[in-house]
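Ticket #4471: structure output looks truncated?

Reporter: J.K.
Steps to reproduce: submitted the chain below (135 residues) through the standard prediction queue, then opened the result file.
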Amino acid sequence: MKTSTYIILFIVVIGLVWIYYSGEEDASEIPASVSAYATISEDGYQNLQLSYGKIGYSFNYILTPNTVKVNQPVRIIADASSLRGCYRYIQIPSYGISKFITSSDNIIEFTPTETGSITITCSMGMGVTKLTVEE
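Returned output as attached by the reporter:
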């Protein structure tokens, strides 16, 4: 190949990369640094939504909201339609919770007893999100 062919190929690749990353944001995309506080519902639970989607340039669990109060029951409602493969098997190791999510069984309930960060993972540890527990 001639040098000019390499230059043209390089310009095309750079252009495609630029077009890919400068497009409109996907509706499921949220910044990784977003922090949201759960409100306590009438039944006393702090309801959270867990799904799988784009965060920045990669895909992972999305937990919304991601901050709860200590000693208040938490209900995580998983979006079974967005979870695939090992991401359907959710683990919360610090509370001994392991659950396979289906469309008819997609709720995880527990009460955080300490402040700090709780790690939520898939069965292989590839999908990870954090739940922050505050006073």
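Triage note (M.O.): checked the attachment and the full token line is present. Residues 46-134 form a domain with the Immunoglobulin-like fold (CATH 2.60.40.420).
Status: closed, working as intended.
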